[in-house]
Amino acid sequence: MDELISVELKRDCEGIQIPLGTAVTLKAGMPVVITQGLGGSYTAQCPDGLFRIAAKDADALGLERGAPPAPAAATGPAGTVEAAEERRIWETLKTCFDPEIPVNIVDLGLVYDLHLETLASGRSRVLVKMTLTAPGCGMGAVIASDARDKLLGLPGVEEAAVEIVWDPPWHQSMITVEGRKVLGLE
Predict the structure, then answer these.
(1) 64 falls in which pLDDT band (50, 70, 90)?
(2) What is the pLDDT of residue 2?
(3) What is the DSSP string of 77-122?
(4) Which residues pair with 124 in a beta bridge?
(5) Domains plus CATH for the chain?
(6) Is the Cβ–Cβ distance between 128 and 113 less than 8 Å?
(7) pLDDT higher than threshold 70 for residue 22
(8) Integer Cα distance of 168 and 112 in angstroms
């Protein structure tokens, strides 16, 4: 979504207040401006502030309710099954966005570690360590939950955990070249 879209909410829906992370009910008829629609969720500005609206509530915005975007197919040289699965996991994490910044959490440099384990069932456990751009951000639990849910939606993933860590502290230099281009820093 490259343009701002003004709409009135078609029905009541839940919104997560940015940056506090507090869930509130946004009322039908409220005017909102959709400022971002990335990774399957929407950022909407309304008279009460800025809110993240989940994909399941797209119809409240007058948009077609659909599944979050599927991660891109793993690309690159042929390798082990584990390497292909790890690429798929990284691509899935690239569908998770900070609702205030139009760059995914991988390209923002927020994901510090990804560990993949094979369970006795033959399925996988995914462990992710990530940080936030600011320690006081109330959206951390929301972003981590979004990442965890998307990982659990992958075929073959049985368990997933996303831990927020603060060491090392995030710095703008951690943004990838791709992220810097989106933000106009290159």
Answers:
(1) confident
(2) 59
(3) S---HHHHHHHHHHHHHTT-B-TTSSSBTTTTT-EEEEEEEE-TTS
(4) 118, 157
(5) 5-61 (2.30.30.40), 81-182 (3.30.300.130)
(6) yes
(7) yes
(8) 9
